[in-house]
Write a structure and sequence with these properties.
Helix content: 10-25%
Mean pLDDT: 90
Strand content: 25-35%
CATH class of the largest domain: Alpha Beta
Largest sheet: 9 strands, mixed
Structural class: alpha+beta
Number of domains: 3
Distance between the termini: 64 Å
CATH superfamily of the largest domain: Pseudouridine synthase
Radius of gyration: 20 Å
Shape: globular
CATH architecture of the largest domain: 2-Layer Sandwich
CATH topology of the largest domain: Pseudouridine synthase
Order of helices and strands: EEHHEEEEEEHEHEEEEEEHEEH
């Protein structure tokens, strides 16, 4: 038997059977439900039922029969825009179009493949072979800062900070429409869309607490350049929240208009600032990632 340990990330939520089915390749929900009913899955040391809802930083443990062969993630040399690195953490400026960890259709071209080549054995193993070092994510077409954990001490510290909402995360975005007020707060729960399981939505009945603070940086004809500060970290939070107030992120064809008047690949969203307490020194550190070239060019077009 092989013991499995997963630590839920800052944007993970939902029933534990769905969470594990999504994060454990080869395990069906029916098999997981049998394990749950038998008391074989533990969260933070205690057995849980199938309707348990996962919280950020939950430690999920269970045992599985040894697999004939474990999936191997290939280390691949690739250029990484490293903002900061020490023995515990690494901060990367992720480009548009890069997937964070291997998934269907992306097995050898993800950030994790590049991290394995760069860091070798120095990545935390808490989230398993598919996501070494990964404690939080940003979408494929979102650019900006990600923190990578090189050991379990760093992973547990950053996961706790994400759970307690003490990490600073500020994003820049261009949204559709002109926002009249200078700033505002969107306090609306986010959960799975009631009819489209691939999407998230403001879901009062089944959603989880979510808060986004936004501030206008610049106004254009038909668009607004904003900064969004995350108080919580739900999946697609900024995209869902801005769409809910009728100002979807420009280029976001999932939560906004299906057509975009500009040549963009995905949403215009950039994780520009990340601040955290260093897991070993205890000192607060804050880093910035400059706007990518496509974003700067778009702003120039809008100003004209």
């Amino acid at each position: 038997m092989k013991r499995q340990l997963l630590v839920a990330e800052g944007d993970d939520a939902g029933r534990i059977d769905r969470y594990l089915a999504a994060h454990c390749e080869g395990l069906s929900r029916s098999h997981l439900q049998k394990l749950l009913k038998a008391g074989g899955i533990f969260v933070n040391g205690s057995p849980v039922k199938p309707n348990y809802k996962v919280n950020p930083a939950d430690r999920i443990e269970f045992e599985l029969p040894d697999a004939p062969q474990e999936t191997e993630i290939i280390a691949r040399e690739m250029p990484l825009d490293i903002i900061y690195e020490d023995n515990d953490v690494l901060l990367v400026n992720k480009p548009k179009g890069m997937v964070v960890h291997p998934a269907a259709g992306h097995t050898d071209d993800t950030l994790v493949n590049g991290l394995l080549a760069h860091c070798r054995e120095s990545l935390s193993g808490i989230n398993g072979v598919m996501r070494p070092g990964i404690v939080h994510r940003i979408d494929r077409d979102t650019t900006g800062i990600l923190i990578i954990c090189k050991n379990d001490l760093a992973h547990n510290s950053i996961a706790l900070q994400l759970k307690e909402h003490t990490i600073t995360r500020r994003y820049q975005a261009v949204v559709c429409g002109v926002i009249k007020e200078e700033e505002g707060v969107i306090d609306a729960p986010i959960g799975r869309h009631p009819t489209d399981r691939k999407k998230m939505a403001v879901n009062v009945k089944n959603g989880r607490h979510a808060v986004t603070h936004y501030k206008v940086l610049e106004r254009f004809k038909g668009y607004t350049f904003v900064e969004c500060r995350l108080e919580t970290g739900r999946t697609h939070q900024i995209r869902v929240h801005m769409s809910s107030i009728h100002h979807p992120v420009l280029g976001d064809t999932v939560y906004g208009p299906s057509r975009c008047p500009f040549s963009l690949e995905g949403q215009t969203l950039h994780a520009g600032v990340l601040g955290f307490i260093h897991p070993r020194t205890g000192k607060y550190m804050e880093f910035q990632a400059p706007l990518p070239e496509y974003f700067v060019n778009l702003l120039e077009k809008l100003r004209k």
